[in-house]
Amino acid sequence: MEEQDTIHKAQYQLFRAYIERLETHFSQSDIQRRHILHSLDKLIGGHKQGQPFDYAETRKIRESSGLTLRELAKKLGIRSPQTIGNYERGISNPSAGSKGDKYLSWLEQARDTKVPQT
Q1: DSSP secondary-structure letter at 5?
Q2: b/e string for 52-69 if b means 16 or more Cβ within 10 A?
């Protein structure tokens, strides 16, 4: 329990640092703003049930399931395979919403069964 409190304190301090950085740099270029917001999204949105989102693992799970990006996107009703590719490369996080929820549900099931069903 003490270790978890230490982790939560560290996460809070990191979150505060990002907020300060956002406030300081918000007037910067559009590219810098996107980079800062993307980093903040990774910090906040990259966790589910207290576990870090492991980008490299997601690709391994998909590949071990025998699915291409296109096949998984079609299976989940996600229009663009690039969306899943972005999750696997850490470009974006599968956040709450229909696409993210479908992907996270599939991923959770795939971790449990190694051969996911939809």
Answers
A1: H
A2: ebebeebbebbeebebeb
Domain 53-118: give its CATH code: 1.10.260.40
Instruction: For residue 32, give both structure tokens.
Output: 């810098």
CB–CB of 43/15 below 8 Å?
yes
The Cα 109–Cα 117 span in angstroms is 7
The residue to which tokens 């996911």 are assigned? 116
Q: What is the pTM of this model?
A: 0.54
What is the identity of the amino acid at 19?
I
CA–CA distance, 27 with 12 (Å, rounded to integer): 24
* 48: β partners: 51
Q: DSSP letters of 69-108?
A: HHHHHHHHT-S-HHHHHHHHHTSS---SSHHHHHHHHHHH
- pLDDT band of 48, cuts 50, 70, 90: very low
Whole-angstrom Cα distance, residue 14 to residue 46? 14
Comparison of pLDDT for 14 and 37, the residue scoring more: 14
